[in-house]
Each structure stands twice: as C-alpha cells, then as structure tokens.
C-alpha cells in the first residue's frame, strides 16, 4: 500500500511562550521552537503501522520553506520511507484551500492508495483534509481513531458525539483525518535522525506541480486573517475554601444564585 501523510511544521506550545506581535497581524515568531503538528505525528505512526502490516511505503509531504525540511526528516527518522517538500515563494500566505490545492497536485504526481492528514493543526480549522478529499473526489472520513485494512477497503472507526464510536467501510483511494489517541507515536532517537540526515528530499515548486501560482498563496487566498488578539480578561475566579462538604454546599448555593440549579 502506498501511503501519503500530510504534515505541518508548527510552533511547539510546550516549549514557547506564545505572544501576539505589535500590529496584531501574527504571533511573535522570532526564536520560536518548532516541531511537527501533534495530530500529524499520530497520522504518520498509523501509516507506518499499516505499512508494516501489509507492505508498501510511507511518504511524508509538507508545504513550507526550507526550514520545514526538519519535520520531514524527523518523520523519516520515525520510520517514513520518503519525504517531499512543496516549497515556493508563491505558496506563502496560502489559506486552507490553497494548501489543499498544492497537496492535490502532489497526490496526482504519485500513485497513492491512502492519504492521511491530522484532524487539525495549529490554526484549529480542521479543513484541509476534507477540502483535499473533495478536490480529488475521494471518499473521506474525519476524526478517525481506528483503521483496519480489509482487502481493497478499510474499516474505519470515528469518534462521534457522546463518546460513541462509529464504524464505516471505505473504499480506497481515500483521505482520512486522524485523531490523537489512535496509537502511541514511537520515540525518535538521535541514531534515527542521523541515519536520515543526508537523505535527499525532493522539492517541488508551482511549476513542478503544474499549479497556477496566482491560485495559491496570499494572492489566491479567499480567507484572510484580519486580526490576532488576546481576549480581555473577565472577572477573576472565586476560590472556595473549607472542608469538602462546605465547598460542595457553597458551590450549590452559587449555582442556584446564577440560575444553574433550581
């Protein structure tokens, strides 16, 4: 099975204090520590496990600049077979549709049975997987937390409202957006990173992909960010003190006063 996993280089929130820049157009990105998007890491692990069970190869792809190559190498050190960097000045400022357009072009340059994305990335939109599937006219499932190979089909489990599980049969080729918790991503050691340090990672620009540069990037974006800001703080929290029984009694009293209990 040929599997393509779409990954993204994002600020590591565990290693950074995220602050909005002076003009409110973005976060302060100087000196930030970056890593692979958490949801994408689970998608790569799932792809590796599928490949190990049924054979084939795993390719990781990202849209970004030269620095984005580091996340491809990390996922190759994790066990992916190949990396592909979609890099062009024209791609800068792409919205979700622009990113999906570039990924679609990359998919069509290969022959993939399964395309995986993370359920969401740092912007929280969760839109690229669905857009990519629609552009390719492939079956799609989101919030996937279970994948089983069943011949030329997949049995796919989805997390739905109320903590319930939904199981579907989906034909390949298809696109799946992977939820965290589907597996336990393996540890990437220094030895693995050194092993792939000199592996050549091909780059593709707009011309290589056959994409009109004006349809992607800031010029082609239909969604533009207007502002970044930290919400104003509301009233401070009230700390309840006393024994457990006293705290419960006070909490019930407050809920009644606020209309939460009758």
UniProtKB/TrEMBL annotation:
Domain Electron transfer flavoprotein alpha/beta-subunit N-terminal: from-to ranges: 24-213
Keywords per UniProt: Electron transport, Transport
Pfam families associated with the record: ETF (PF01012)
Signal peptide start-end: none
GO molecular function: electron transfer activity
Family as reported in the entry's similarity comment: Belongs to the ETF beta-subunit/FixA family.
Protein name: Electron transfer flavoprotein subunit beta
